[in-house]
Specification:
Blueprint lengths: L3 H8 L10 E4 L8 E4 L7 E3 L16 H24 L5 E3 L3 H7 L8 E4 L12 H7 L11 H12 L15 H5 L6 H8 L8 H9 L17 E6 L6 H23 E7 L5 H6 L1 H5 L4 H4 L2 E5 L1 E12 L16 E6 L11 H20 L8 E13 L12 H6 L1 H5 L6 H14 L16 H7 L16 E3 L6 E3 L3 H11 L1
Length: about 500
């Protein structure tokens, strides 16, 4: 995560005369929200492993980059503490100036620790800076952004010989080996790494990664993860009963993670009813033993993974000299996520057993049709291809129909008129409606001449069923009643008679 803004803000709040008694402010609007810390030292581990010497009392005399890294390390330590105390999770964090270095340095001390890559980041002498020295010790495949194919091309370029296409090799090529090649440059890597499907400018990108340069933006965290993956590695896994045991363990962890990340409270009581029904049954609810159940909140899935994927990494066989090729290849098979995974009526153990027996075991047999002879170094179970559930947010694919209907009665109640309200309203209208005046000055209570003739049956046409619902028009000159469509012709008749 990018904490540049909050670190920069707190650097300006530091007391230059006493860094040991500093306060990290977490809110610009409320200066009391935060925590106390010692800005003169780093929280957690450092690379290189230096002594945590106190800095100068005058903050203006120290390296500004180091001071920012100090604050970043204390913020990371505070977040780790909150994550563990409130959620029970542990995590590993790396602190540096970009995503590439932060990811790599976070792997130095695992698990449940943090490491800060300390300055100098740039060397103006023949000595290596800390960034270069740190990256040189990594195999090229370990650098984020360098995938399997690019790593193979870099290995072949350094070793000056082709390698097996499956990646099984015991030859390791480190960043230092690439960087020390004669005439190495971004242009050279562009020629070496170019090929079908390789984007233009790949040489400059990889050259920057090998030198610790990563300009990619830190994306904002998403409410819904793109996938949920659980995996474990093994020294030797070659028996079916052991595989089944590991599949149950991984599947159970996957389902629990899905419940944590993809289910939220609906915010509505499980048996919530319209206010009228609640008022009628209020006395019954007070005396009911099921009161506790009525207070339980419904839970809903905010996203549904449509696919489950099983991946394994078979260990290569030994060579004639007793060694093994280095292989990072994984093989995978996928299947539709079964619907019973989303059931709230069955326990996690029951869902886990069904998932293993009905889905994961068939996928494993597709990956390894032979009954024995395989040796696995890794198993991964993942829920992928997330589809957002219907909700009212911008990310949702639609509205929650069930919730919408539940709210329908309460939303329309303001605009609903009951029979009693209708009688009251009609009486009010009759009392306040003014008397209508006809063309001869009489009120609507007195019959006009055309109305009298109509009552006497002297009208010129008989009203049939079609005319009964037709809108009428009364002439202001003679008081004759006629359909609206005849008003224009009747008016022309008056004009022609004048």
């Amino acid at each position: 995560m990018d904490v540049s803004d909050i670190v920069e803000y707190n650097v300006g709040l530091l007391n230059n005369n006493d860094l040991t008694k500093s306060f990290f402010c977490l809110s610009k609007s409320d200066p009391t929200i935060g925590f106390e810390f010692d800005a003169s030292q780093v929280a957690g581990h450092m690379y290189p492993d230096l002594s945590n010497d106190k800095l100068s009392a005058d903050a203006s005399q120290i390296d500004p980059l180091r001071l920012r890294l100090h604050l970043g390390s204390h913020l990371a330590n505070h977040l780790r503490f909150l994550l563990h105390s409130e959620k029970g999770y542990t995590c590993t964090i790396g602190i540096s100036t970009n995503k590439l270095l932060a990811k790599l340095v976070g792997n130095v001390h695992k698990p449940d620790a943090q490491t800060t890559l300390m300055p100098p980041y740039v060397s103006y002498t023949d000595e290596l800076d800390n960034v270069t020295a740190f990256l040189d010790a990594h195999e090229v495949r370990e650098v984020p952004g360098i995938g399997f194919k690019l790593a193979q091309k870099l290995r072949e370029y350094v070793l000056c010989r082709p390698l097996p296409g499956n990646g099984e090799t015991d030859d390791e090529v480190f960043v230092a080996d690439v960087r020390r090649q004669p005439e190495i440059s971004a242009e050279t890597l562009e020629r070496v790494l170019a090929g079908p499907g390789t984007p233009h400018g790949i040489g400059a990108k990889v050259w920057g990664l090998l030198n610790g340069v990563d300009d990619s933006d830190v994306s904002e965290a998403q409410d819904i993860p793109k996938q949920i993956s659980i995996e474990d590695s093994y020294r030797r896994l070659d028996k079916l009963d052991e595989v089944l045991q590991e599949l149950r363990r991984l599947a159970s962890s996957l389902i629990r993670r899905m419940h944590i990340d993809l289910i939220e409270d609906d915010g509505q009581d499980e048996d919530e009813e319209p206010p009228e029904a609640q008022q009628q049954q209020q006395q019954q609810r007070q005396n009911s033993e099921a009161d506790d159940n009525l207070k339980q909140k419904k839970r809903r899935w905010v996203a549904y993974p449509k696919t489950i994927r099983l991946s394994t990494r078979p260990r290569p066989p030994q060579t004639t000299d007793g060694n093994r090729y280095r292989s990072l290849n994984r093989i995978s098979r996928s299947a539709p996520m079964p619907n019973f995974v989303f059931s709230s009526k069955e326990s996690v153990d029951v869902v886990t057993e069904r998932l293993v027996v009905e889905t994961l075991v068939p996928l494993f047999r597709r990956l390894h049709p032979e009954k024995k002879g395989w040796d696995l170094s890794l198993i991964n179970v993942a829920a992928t291809n997330m589809a957002d559930a219907a909700n009212d947010s911008k990310q949702g694919v639609g509205r929650d129909i069930l919730k919408m209907f539940k709210q329908h009665d309460s939303l329309r109640r303001e605009f609903t008129i009951t029979e009693g309200d209708l009688d009251t309203e009609m009486n009010h209208v009759e009392a306040e409606r003014p008397a209508l005046v006809n063309c001869e000055g009489g009120s609507e209570d007195s019959l006009t001449r055309s109305q009298e003739s109509y009552e006497e049956g002297s009208h010129d046409w008989e009203e049939d069923e079609e005319d009964s619902g037709m809108e009428k028009f009364e002439c202001e000159r003679c008081g004759a009643m006629m359909p609206v469509f005849a008003s224009a012709a009747h008016e022309r008749w008056h004009v022609s008679g004048e």
